[in-house]
Automatic annotation (TrEMBL):
Signal peptide: none
Cited PANTHER family: CELL DIVISION PROTEIN DIVIB, CELL DIVISION PROTEIN FTSQ
POTRA domain: residues covered: 38-110
CC annotations in GO: plasma membrane
Species in which this protein is naturally found: Tsukamurella pulmonis
Official protein name in the record: Cell division protein FtsQ
Cellular compartments annotated: Membrane
Length: 233
């Protein structure tokens, strides 16, 4: 009788190869997780113009030397919150990792749209209506915000800022003062002391077109509350 023929088991070989691959991948992942080669050694700060970049970088110093894979999203968020506390100029911040060895801190600073006079002095107001920092002098060409209580949840503040941001650059650059006693009654003053009564923040494009037309006429006060019937006085 002839000897029995052994049958190959391709499925077993495939399984062994898969297990070997998993072992290799696991070993590489473990090496990367603990490897000092992929640890945080450098800090890159972006977006910090008015905020002190060196102080921002110091916030994440405790993460230096730690393998990047061990820095969890929760830890990055916690350090980002500490970055925001560094300066009133900082509106938002994120902390991310960039391989092989860099911590990246991205700062978004507040956009200054106006300044306001408060009992304590002059404060800058951001695009959300937040008075965020006291200054000696406001930046050049920054309009004054005249509302009773400038703050982010004040309707007169938010309406005034909405109108200001809706103006095209050539008109925006002429505004020296803007304010309202209600969201429906925004008015602003131009550099040549002409006064514009704008009304609420609606129909900005139509009001802009009407204002351009009436500004060609003599007068000191211009009303575009109803852009279909602008008036001059």
């Amino acid at each position: 009788m002839s000897a029995p023929v052994r049958r190959r088991v391709p499925g077993l070989r495939r399984l062994l190869l898969i297990l070997l691959a998993l072992v290799v991948v696991g070993a590489l992942a473990a090496a990367a997780y603990f490897s000092p080669v992929l640890s945080a050694r450098d800090v890159s700060v972006t977006g910090a113009t008015n905020a002190p970049a060196d102080q921002v970088a110091k916030v994440v110093e405790p993460l230096k030397g730690r393998p990047l894979l061990q820095i969890t999203p929760g830890q990055r968020d916690a350090y980002a919150a500490q970055v925001i506390a560094v300066s009133p100029w900082i509106d938002r911040a994120t902390v991310t990792v960039s391989y092989p060895s860099t911590l990246v801190v991205e700062v978004t600073e507040r956009e200054v749209v106006a300044y306001a006079q408060r009992p304590a002095g002059t404060v800058l107001v951001d695009a959300k209506g937040v008075p965020f920092i006291k200054v000696g002098e406001p930046p050049i060409l920054t309009p004054k915000l005249t509302v009773d209580d400038p703050k982010s949840d004040d309707p007169a503040t938010t309406a005034s800022i909405a109108v200001l941001k809706s103006l095209p650059p050539d008109l925006h650059g002429q505004v020296v003062e803007i304010g309202a006693d209600s969201p429906a009654n925004v008015r602003f003053v131009l550099r040549d002391k002409r006064v514009v009564y704008w009304g609420d923040a609606s129909r900005a494009d139509a009001k802009t077109a009407a204002l351009r037309m009436v500004l060609t006429r003599p007068g000191k006060e211009f009303t575009v509350i109803n852009p279909d019937m602008p008036t001059t006085r």
